[in-house]
Amino acid sequence: MRISMKLPCLCLSFCGILALLSPIAWSQSSGQYIEEKDIPYRTNVEQDDYTAERCRLDVYYPKDEKPWATVVWFHGGGLEKGNKEIPDELKKQGLAIVAANYRFSPVVKAPAYIDDAAAAVAWTFQNIERFGGDKTKIFVSGHSAGGYLTAMIGLDKSWLAQYDMDANAIAGLIPFSGQTVTHFTIRKERGIADTTVLVDSLAPLNHTRKDAAPMLLITGDRELELLGRYEENAYLWRMMKVSGHTQTELYELDGYDHGGMAKPAFPLLLKFMRSTLGK
Fold first, then answer.
1. Domains in the chain: boundaries
2. Superfamily assignment of 2-277 in CATH?
3. Smallest Cα–Cα separation from 96: which of 50, 128, 126, 121?
4. pLDDT below 50 — which residues of the chain?
5. Do residues 63 and 32 touch, judged by C-beta distance below 8 A?
6. Residue 64: strand pairing partners
7. Residue 212 vs residues 67, 171, 244, 273, 277: alpha-carbon distances, Å
C-alpha cells in the first residue's frame, strides 16, 4: 500500500487492496439467490413509451437470509448509453443488488436522468422490505455516469424530497469515478466545452454538507483517469471535510484507468458497507 503525502487520499495497488481487506472480508452467502427483472419503478405517473422502456430495474436478492443490506447500482455510459447489470463482484455476497436503467441524453435533457435515479432509489426504499431487505441498510453506488448520479441524489436532498424521502436515510454513498462538477454531457447539451469546468446546481460539489450519508469516493490512477476525474473527487473530499462531514473517504487505485478501476473498487465497496454497518 502506497500512501500519498501530497494529496488527501489513499493510493492503492491491487496488492494493497487485498492487504487492506483481509482482516474483515465481507462474509459470503452459500444460499440461493433470486433475480426479478424489468420491474417498472415509475408506475404512478403518465409516461411515454421511452420512459416506460427505460425506467425499469432488476432485483437480485438472497432467498433465505433476511433482513439483508442492499446496493442500488447505476451503470455508466456518459448519460448517453449503457444498460442495467448486476455486477458479478457483488453476487453471492449475502446482500441484494437493485440495478436500475435510466433515460439518456439526447432523447431527454438534464435533469431527467437525475430524477430517474432518485425515483429508482425511492422505489427501493418503498419496496425492498417485501423482498426481505432492511430499508435502513440501503447503499447507493455506480460507475462513471452512475457515480455522478449517486453523488447528485445523495448530496442534493431536493431530488429524493420529491418522493417524500430524506436522502440522509441512505446508509452510504459509493460513487466509482463519478464527476463532481457538472457532468460533461450536461455541458454538451448546453454547448459548453469539456475543458470548461462548470459547478452549478447540477454539480455534486455545489451540495456539500456535513449531515450527508457516509461517502466513499474511489477513482483510478490520476495519470490514467478521464480528464480531471481524480482531482474533482479530491476536491469534493476536501470540501466535504470543510463542510464538517467526518465520514468521507477517498481512494485512488494505482495503475488502473477509468474503465479498469471498477473491478478492484468492489472489494472496497464491500468493506465500506461492512464498516458502516458496524459488523
1. 2-277
2. Alpha/Beta hydrolase fold, catalytic domain (3.40.50.1820)
3. 128
4. 1-7, 14, 18-19, 21-27
5. yes
6. none
7. 24, 10, 10, 16, 16
Would you tell me how many other CB atoms lie within 10 Å of the CB of residue 15?
10
pTM metric for this prediction: 0.91
Under 8 Å between Cβ of 148 and 181: no
State residue 26's pLDDT score: 40
SS3 35: strand
Euclidean distance between CA atoms 21 and 31, whole angstroms: 23
pLDDT tens column, 254-266: 999 999 999 999 9
Measured between alpha carbons, how far is 231 from 238 in angstroms, rounded to an integer?
10
**DSSP secondary structure, 223-267, as one string:** TTSSTTHHHHHHHHHHHHHHTT---EEEEEETT--TTTTHHHHHH
Contacts of 17 (CB under 8 A, 6+ apart): 253, 264, 267, 268
At 12 the three-state DSSP class reads strand
Q: How far is CA 61 from CA 5, 23, 95, 99, 268, in A?
A: 41, 26, 6, 11, 20
Q: Please tell me the distance from the alpha carbon of residue 143 to that of residue 82, in angstroms, as a whole number.
A: 11
Look-up of cell digits 447489470: 85
> How many other CB atoms are found less than 10 A from the CB of residue 46?
6
